[in-house]
Amino acid sequence: MNKNRPEVWLRGKIPDVPDLLQPAAHALLQSAEEVEKYMIGFPEELLWKKPAGRASVGFHLQHLTGVTDRMLTYAKAKKLSESQFRYLKDEGKPNDDISVEFLVQKFQEKVNEAIDFLKNTPENILTEYRPVGRKELPSTIIGLLFHAAEHSQRHVGQLLVTVSVLKDSSDSLQS
C-alpha cells in the first residue's frame, strides 16, 4: 500500500457505483486497504489475545466480514441462513486453524462483493424498507449499506489500536 496515496474518498468516484452510494463504497474500500496495511507482519500467535479483556484481532477481522455479509443479506430482503448464525456465534472464538492471511482475504472478498452489490443497486430503491433480525427492526437499503460502511470503519479503528497494543507488548517482552 502506497503511503503517499490519498484516502479512497479523495481519489474520485468509484466506477459504476451510484452517486448516493459513493460514501459507502469509499468507506468499505478504505477499510479493506487499512486492514491489509495494519495486518502486515502481525504475529499469528497474537491473533486471539484479548488485551485488557477487550476483543481480539481475530474477532475484529471475523466481525468485519460477518457484519458486512449480514447487512448485505438484509439489504437483499433475505433472512440470515443457519451458516450465517453459526458464523456470528463463532466470531472471536479462538481457532488455531484460522490464519491472519485467511481472515484478511475473507474480508477483502466480502468488500468486493459489497462493491458489486452497490454497483447493482439503483438509487430509486435506497429508501425501501428492510427488516433487520429476528425482531424485524425497521431499516432501509441505504441504512443497511451505510451501517456496513460505518461499522467497518469503527472496527478498523479498534483493530488498529488492538494490533498496536499487542505488537508493542510483544516487542517489550522480547527486548
Molecular structure report:
By secondary structure, this protein is mainly alpha-helical. It has one domain: Up-down Bundle (Four Helix Bundle (Hemerythrin (Met), subunit A)), CATH 1.20.120.450. The chain contains five helices and two strands. The protein has a two-stranded antiparallel sheet with strand order 1-2. A hairpin with a 4-residue loop joins strand 1 and strand 2. Helix 2 packs parallel to helix 4 and helix 2 packs antiparallel against helix 5. It is globular and about 50 Å long.
Tell me the CATH topology. Four Helix Bundle (Hemerythrin (Met), subunit A)
Q: Helix content range of the residues, please?
A: 55-70%
Termini, distance in Å? 29 Å
Gross morphology: globular
What's the assembly state of these chains?
single chain
How do the SSEs run, as a string of H and E? HHHHEEH
> Largest sheet at a glance?
2 strands, antiparallel
CATH H-level homologous superfamily name: dinb family like domain
Q: Total domains, how many?
A: 1
Protein name: DinB superfamily protein
Give the topology, please.
Layout: H1 22-38, H2 57-75, H3 82-90, H4 100-119, E1 129-132, E2 137-140, H5 141-174
Antiparallel strand pairs: 1-2
Q: Which properties best describe this structure?
A:
2 strands, 175 residues, Four Helix Bundle (Hemerythrin (Met), subunit A), two-stranded antiparallel sheet, DinB superfamily protein, DinB-like, DinB/YfiT-like, mainly alpha
Brief overview:
This protein has 175 residues and is mainly α.
